Amino acid sequence: MAFSEEATERWTQATVHPDMWVDTDDDPREDGSQPTGERGTLVDYLRRYRLTLELKCADLTPTQLAQRSVPPSTMSLLGLLRHMAEVERHWFRREMAGHDAPKLYWSDADRDGDWNGAVPDPAVVDDAWRAWRAEVAFAEQYLAATTDLGTLGGRGTPLRDVLVHMIEEYARHCGHADLLRERIDGRVGQ
């Protein structure tokens, strides 16, 4: 089966390097700081990947955010945002802090609710942003109060492993977000 669709022209806001999202001086991921030590490095990488996902979703309509990659995939930028809210919630709120927090989108009836429920409705988009930002804020507060990377979560998982896993999770999905965004409006950049 051949895939046919009108080609979208590729573009970037960067004026210096055409493979960048924006010029370095305008990049919110570049805050001028140099992290020190293992903890600082891990937290900074996680911060940068969170910002990357946010950038990839910026300035899009609910319809664009909910646009699926290619059939039969249910992946969309909105789905990624909902998925990462769920992942943040699981690892920081439930696993590390030990809270009894219900799942946001997943259920026994719909194990892919984060993806399947990513529909082009402004209320769904607002909820996804609110949930993701709340879970990121909780994680940041937890990290500010917990300096020992050896701190164990409920299943015995060290905080160090959770941070590495979160970096891996965001890195994987930011790669998906690159392709999804380019397909939606042609915008390119790392």
CATH class type: Mainly Alpha
- CATH homology superfamily name: dinb family like domain
The CATH topology corresponds to: Four Helix Bundle (Hemerythrin (Met), subunit A)
Q: What's the order of the H and E elements?
A: HHHHHH
Q: Determine the N-to-C terminus distance.
A: 31 Å
| Helical proportion, percent range | 40-55%
What is the tally of helical segments?
6
Give a short account of the largest sheet.
none
Give the tally of β-strands.
Answer: 0
Portion of residues in beta strands equals under 5%
In total, the number of domains comes to: 1
Describe it.
This protein has a single domain (42-185), classed as dinb family like domain (Four Helix Bundle (Hemerythrin (Met), subunit A), Up-down Bundle). 53% of the residues lie in helices and 0% in strands. The chain is built from six helices and no strands. The longest helix is centred in the last third of the chain and has 27 residues, at 159-185. The two termini are 31 Å apart. 28% of the residues are buried.
Protein topology:
Layout lengths: L36 H21 L4 H4 L11 H20 L16 H4 L5 H24 L13 H27 L5
Summarize the structure.
Helix content is about 55%, strand content about 0%. With about 190 residues, the protein is mainly alpha-helical.
Features:
190 residues; single chain; mainly alpha; Four Helix Bundle (Hemerythrin (Met), subunit A); 6 helices; flat
